[in-house]
Write a structure and sequence with these properties.
It is built from four helices and ten strands; from the N terminus they run ββββααββββββαα. It is α+β, with helices and mostly antiparallel strands. The chain has a domain of 105 residues. The chain has a three-stranded antiparallel sheet with strand order 2-3-8, with no helix packed on it. A three-stranded antiparallel sheet has the order 5-6-7, with helices on one face. Helix 1 packs across helix 2. The radius of gyration is 46 Å and the shape is rod-shaped.
């Protein structure tokens, strides 16, 4: 805008709303800079829209900007419908207060999380990143049954030795030694 500055649109960012299972629409912002940029595309658009030459479009845009600047200086504000209100501060700097976009343009989109049980995806467990497949295997592992046959062998051997000691202690067998007579 000759004599005023440049209006541009800055794209906003979409936001996730997990509680309401929605994604909020990005809200674009209209940015006003006092630095002027190349307006050739705007001039071509104005000329084509009004079936005029580029020179006539330059004159039309210049007149519009001069009227806008004069309104800001005399009334301390100028309203540009659909864009916002231009105002001047005490030092004469012009700034723009953007109009809010109609809610129709920034409706949230319903977004439900879809989990495919057969698909592998990354998950965070504590402070360690792993996959759902590894965690499923971890929780579904059956404990390894260790072979404990040797415990039964020791128990049965001890019982057998106790039976032999008990048998020998209850039977009267002759002692073999110096006073014993030989059976042969």
């Amino acid at each position: 805008m000759p004599g005023l500055g440049t209006l541009s649109i800055a794209a906003g960012k979409a936001e996730s709303d997990f509680l309401n299972t929605a994604i909020k629409a990005p809200v674009p912002a209209i940015v006003f800079e006092t630095k002027e940029h190349d307006a050739s595309n705007l001039l071509d658009y104005i000329a084509a829209k009004n079936n005029n030459t580029v020179f006539q479009a330059i004159e039309m845009l210049g007149q519009f900007c001069n009227n806008l600047k004069a309104a800001v200086i005399t009334d301390n504000k100028a309203v540009l419908n659909g864009v916002g209100t231009f105002s001047a501060d005490a030092s004469g700097n012009i700034y723009l207060r953007q109009d809010a976009l109609p809610q129709f343009f920034v409706q949230p989109v319903k977004a439900e999380r879809v989990i495919h049980p057969q698909a592998e995806h990354n998950i965070l467990v504590g402070d360690k990143e792993t996959t759902n497949t590894i965690m499923t295997e971890y929780f579904n592992e059956e404990p390894v049954q260790k072979s404990r046959w040797w415990i039964w062998a020791i128990v049965l051997g001890t019982i057998g030795l106790l039976a032999i000691v008990f048998y020998l202690s209850n039977t009267n067998l002759p002692l073999i030694g110096a006073n014993a007579t030989s059976i042969f």
